Amino acid sequence: MAGFALAAFVTNAQKVSFGVKAGANFSTVKTNDEDFNDERAMRTTYHAGLVTDFSVSPNFSIQPHLLIQGKGVSLEHDGHKDRFKFTSLDIPVNLLYKSSGFFIGGGPNLGINLNGKLEAEDDPAENFDFEFGSDEGQIKRINFGVNLLTGYRLKNGLFFSGNYLAGISNWSNSSNDKWRNNLFGISVGYMFK
Questions:
Q1: CB-based contacts of 94: which residues, under 8 Å, 6+ apart?
Q2: Residue 71 maps to which CATH number?
Q3: Is the confidence at residue 1, as pLDDT, over 90?
């Protein structure tokens, strides 16, 4: 049903524009491991990608993104940091309300984990790459979330935005372990004429 609604909006789009964006992510995780929660620290990373804007009225548009994003979290303990580093391909589809350059909205996000690793600051022998799949001990490749987005676009096409991506699916294949990635991002971008 959602696919039909999106197709109807796109078909009736009055104007389509394309752009690019990049910026910083401040990523963390929500887990049921209390020891992990006590030591976790935000991981600063990046995002970059493409934006398409389907304007369906003067004040509303559908704006899919195609982003490469860094995700994960840091653990601070015993005077050093261990970094859980993930790279993901994300496809958020935002419904936006726009007025006088300002925009606000949100929508679903599809995330595809491309790779991940643990980097231990004090002992490189502890470093390892995560495996992705559906088996116990592996990380799920596909995840879902909800994206909230707001910002301001100048008349020349330059825009600034902030977003919050809340993970709603568990990355762990174990029913006893919960791991959801959340991040706050700030971006600068440009929509081509």
A1: 62, 63, 64, 65, 105, 106, 107, 147, 149
A2: 2.40.160.20
A3: no
Phi, psi of 168 (to 5 degrees): -115, -10
3-state secondary structure of 6: helix
- As a whole number of angstroms, the distance between CA 110 and CA 88 comes to 10
- Domain range for 126 is 22-191
In tens, the pLDDT along 80-100 reads 788 999 999 999 999 999 999
For the whole model, what pTM was predicted?
Answer: 0.87
Number of domains composing the chain: 1
Coil vs helix vs strand at 8: helix
Count of CB atoms within 10 A of residue 127's CB? 13
Contact 39, 45 (CB under 8 A): no
DSSP states along 26-93: EEEEEES-HHHHHHEEPEEEEEEEEEEEEESSSSEEEEEEEEEEEEEEEEEETTEEEEEEEEEEEEEE
Token pair 């020891």: residue: 35
